[in-house]
Task: inverse folding
DNA sequence: CTGTTAGCGCGTTCAC
DNA sequence: GTGAACGCGCTAACAG
């Protein structure tokens, strides 16, 4: 292995000069710099990361904690990761991914205490999140993608679910929909306090009430099968539902398949609007799903920027007003992607033929008495 | 930060004794060991990764190079990652993920030359792969998930596509299918030499010929839209096709949606069999997709085992017969998941009404004239 | 602008 | 069984 010492010797300068030439920490004459650079490339030198970390007390690594998702990741989350990796690189950091579930706080603890990363990004935040507490306790700089309920002094970026719901209800109401359902993440997620699910639900219920709409909230497992079963459940709840807002990509696919199987038209009989959905998903359905697209890439870039700023400035933010500093916390909007799944509300009573509430026995719900 | 020195002082022993107590490199009396351990946990000591790496010349980190996939990752790939991370941990390594495309060989080069990882796993291998060449040149231990065409002295694990195709054709032939199509990955992937796509295609063509079946190979972009359009293309190629084997999950979803839209029955009119598909996908379609499931978790574990063995034994394998050593290379089989998408071949001529070969120009089909 | 030097925290080879 | 001492390769004062 060729070291800085070798380069220094070859260039006829001292070791520290090589270091300064590389890191540009100090003015160096062009002549010596080019001698050094020449020697470096001639010898094929690359600096040793461990030595640099040890001496400099910085690893130049940022970690991203991802939950192990049994369903795989959609395009949104991957856009996020890519954008984050790119932005990290532009700040001189490399991004490593640590797959840890919410329960793995101890592992997180271990890794950060070894100083493997200078800072950490945490995704899929729960209102109470042990990983976040571990990071907080370890005094490691971190930024949340999402928000715990306790926010004081913490850095975060999040999707503006409130605004997204506002847009969604605005559009649906304008189309005449009055009975609207929200197909959420699983009951398990909601009960565990998954931030996105809870904030969306709350915004949905509150804003629907304000607008005088009939709102139905249905948690649903993240599987296509559960999405299919949701059809029976939803119209069992309220046969007058004409629109579904969905936060659950996988379930949405099942939902639309089941609607098709029953012969219901989208958007003729039912309108569907995806929330925080990726374009890849929207085109998977027939008709193409209208959606409020999650700002994956923007979130990734913003999250890294914030994390770097926390690292650079230290965690000195304790004054109460600091919570709203734009370099510490940001809400990003979803953008509307038009599809073919949105239409005017149908008069439910007008097309009883298309609206069978009869369920399939299999995986499924029972009969319900039709109560008009 | 609490160091080994601190622990040594607190336990009343010397620094090296602490090191030995931790690494169990040398016999230590139980009395002193427990004193050391007690001091460690009392002070909350965790060793500094950089220092350990520098002194020990091993980073205890393995890297996994993933391609940035615009469509997101399915469950299979994520199972692989999880299994690999777990297995790595059991070997005392942590697994970091580096998202690098095939063109990013230079970045790979840079990272490994900094000795950030003791070994590297590379996924989604192309027959000629610059990342692999870079690793090879840098003399970094690595294991491929997939295979380059040049294999001498290289460690790899791969899915047994040959066997999978054998199973697939065997089953389809037994159901009476004679005109069978393969819906492959994109033409771009095939042209670039993506190993899985090419090996599957070749096996498909060769084995179909051997069995006297009519084989059609269709590359298809990894989008649902392209999958929909594939319907027109396939039956344009050969109206007598009664079964489709698919290696392209995203396209499969579109394919099935389009079949449904045209009113074709699966498996009544067409049988569909997924190849190297994950269970999450199989349940997304209606009817549930029959598939040869990719051995994601097994691949992950096996890949790590091999990589560790390469690291431990050094790259000394140059003798020609070494290429078949089971600790260096392994082929893993897919397992059959029955679904509802497989049935006996229909007599094409018997149901001309359902079979039209007319292509839709865009994503949005109009009526077609029935041409018997 | 450049050179000298003292560590960073730990693994490991020696002596004891 | 234990301890002392050296060095891994580099950063960052501190001196010129």
Result:
């Amino acid at each position: 292995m060729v070291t800085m010492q070798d380069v220094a010797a070859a260039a006829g300068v001292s070791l520290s000069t090589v270091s300064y030439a590389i890191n540009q920490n100090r003015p160096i004459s062009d002549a010596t710099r080019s001698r050094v650079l020449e020697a470096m490339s001639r010898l094929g030198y690359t600096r040793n990361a461990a030595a640099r970390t040890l001496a400099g007390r910085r690893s130049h690594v940022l970690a991203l904690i991802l939950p192990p998702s049994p369903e795989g990741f959609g395009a949104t989350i991957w856009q996020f990761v890519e954008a984050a990796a790119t932005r990290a690189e532009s700040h001189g950091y490399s991004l490593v991914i640590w797959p840890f579930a919410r329960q793995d706080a101890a592992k997180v603890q271990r890794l950060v205490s070894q100083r493997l990363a200078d800072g950490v990004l945490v995704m899929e935040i729960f209102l109470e999140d042990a990983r976040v507490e571990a990071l907080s306790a370890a005094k490691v700089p971190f930024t949340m993608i999402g928000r715990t309920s306790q926010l004081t002094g913490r850095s975060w970026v999040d999707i503006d679910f409130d605004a997204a719901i506002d847009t969604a209800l605005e559009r649906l109401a304008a189309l005449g929909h009055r009975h609207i359902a929200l197909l959420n993440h699983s009951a398990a997620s909601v009960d565990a306090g998954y931030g996105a699910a809870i904030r969306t639900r709350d915004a949905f219920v509150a804003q629907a009430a304000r607008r005088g709409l009939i709102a139905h909230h249905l948690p649903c497992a993240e599987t296509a099968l559960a999405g299919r079963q949701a059809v029976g459940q939803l119209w069992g709840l309220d046969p007058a539902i004409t629109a579904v807002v969905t936060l659950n990509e996988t379930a949405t696919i099942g939902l639309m398949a089941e609607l098709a199987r029953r012969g219901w038209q989208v958007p003729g009989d039912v309108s569907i609007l995806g929330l925080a959905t990726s374009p890849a998903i929207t085109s998977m359905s027939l008709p193409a799903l209208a959606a409020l697209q999650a700002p994956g890439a923007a979130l990734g870039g913003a999250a890294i920027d914030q994390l770097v700023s926390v690292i650079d400035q230290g965690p000195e933010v304790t004054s109460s007003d600091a919570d709203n500093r734009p370099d510490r916390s940001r809400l990003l909007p979803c953008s509307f992607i038009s599809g073919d799944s949105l239409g005017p509300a149908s008069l439910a009573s007008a097309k009883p033929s298309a609206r069978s509430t009869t369920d399939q026995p299999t995986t499924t719900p029972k009969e319900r008495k039709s109560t008009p």
In short: Residues 13-17, 20, 26-29, 32, 51, 53-57 of chain B lie near DNA strand D (CB under 10 Å from a C1').
